[in-house]
Structures are given as C-alpha cells and as structure tokens.
Amino acid sequence: MDISEINLSLFRLVNDLGKEYPFLNPTFIFIAEYMVFILAISVLIIWFTRDEDNRLMILCASIAFICAYTVGKVSGVFHSNYQPFVELNDVNQLIHKEEDNSFPSDHTILFFSYCFSFWLSKRGWSILWVLLAVLVGVSRIWVGVHYPLDVLTGILISLTAATSIYLIFPKLNVTQATLKIYGKYENKLLLLFKRTMRNKSKNF
C-alpha cells in the first residue's frame, strides 16, 4: 500500500465517522469553523495580561506562524491537491469551502504554530493547547475539507517552525529591545487615555 492509498484510507476512516455518529457533527463543525475565533481572543487576552513572558510567548508563536505559513505556501507550489469533496465521491462534507489547493492545511498550521509554541513556553497544563490543535486537525478531515496528509504536513511544518523560533528568537537582543519599546509606548498611551477619561469625568 503506497502513501496515497494510506492517505485515502485514513481519510475515509475519519470522515465516515460523521456518518456513523451524526450527533458529533455539530461539535466538529464548530471546532473546524469557529475555534479560530477562540484562539484569536485567547491570544489577545494573553497579550494584554502585560506579562513579559506571555508577550514573548505570543511574539514567538506569531513569528512561528508566519514562517510556517510561508513554508506551507511554498510547499503548495510543488505539490497540490484539491479538497476531498472535489476529488472523491460520497464525502461527508459538512462545511462550505471554495475549491482550491488543500495542501497543506492552513488551519492546522495556524493552530499548531500557536498551540505548540504555548506548550514549549509554559509546559504543564499547556499540553491542552496541543490537544486542541489535534482536535482542529482531525475536525478538518471529519468535515471533509482536508486529507490526513494535508494535516500531517501542516503539523510537521508548524512543529519545526515553532521549535526553531523558540530556541533562537528569545535569545536575540532585538527581541527584548522590541518588547521594551512596545511597552514604553503602550504605557504612554495608557497614561494619555487615563488623563483623557479623567478630564471628561471632570467636565461632567
């Protein structure tokens, strides 16, 4: 059995679960479509804790995502395939998606870049972030818009990028300098905002 056959078999195995257990479909649709908004909100909340370690973690995760996304787009030039619902019959397609190259999975790259970076920085309970990323990857197969190989390639690219950035970026002088400059101007903006609000309250 070659890679393409294994890829197809694994896809059928996961995607057909939606036919066997349809009561789980709404959950996987939510994970596949809307979990990205929860990740975005989480990133903003973590950033505005104003903790320096948290900000370094978000910065590393963001750079890892940019690197992984770029590598993913380049790899898509050398290998491409349409989504399963385009190429195969009897696919349990649960969400709408335009027909295009599905290799590798952008959602998987996004979640593993951030979630694995969170785990590298925090460890411990942060493994839950990685489990969330795994769920997102599985959900993209479950809803019929990606093959397992799309997802696995996205995972490998993201893990490589996240690990490389984690090992290199925090040690660079420019990293600490950037965070300090940002923090300086953020403090100025906060002071300006507080003064503005104080003046407005006095006028009333």
TrEMBL record:
PANTHER family assigned: AT30094P (PTHR14969:SF13), SPHINGOSINE-1-PHOSPHATE PHOSPHOHYDROLASE (PTHR14969)
The entry's keywords: Membrane, Transmembrane, Transmembrane helix
MF annotations from Gene Ontology: undecaprenyl-diphosphatase activity
Pfam entry (one): PAP2
Gene Ontology CC: plasma membrane
Transmembrane segment boundaries: 28-49, 56-82, 127-145, 151-169
SMART domains hit by this protein: acidPPc
Protein name in UniProt: Undecaprenyl-diphosphatase
ATP-binding in keyword set: no
Entries under InterPro entries matching the protein: PAP2/HPO, PAP2/HPO_sf, UPP_Pase
The Phosphatidic acid phosphatase type 2/haloperoxidase domain, residue ranges: 57-166
Source species of the chain: Paenibacillus oryzisoli
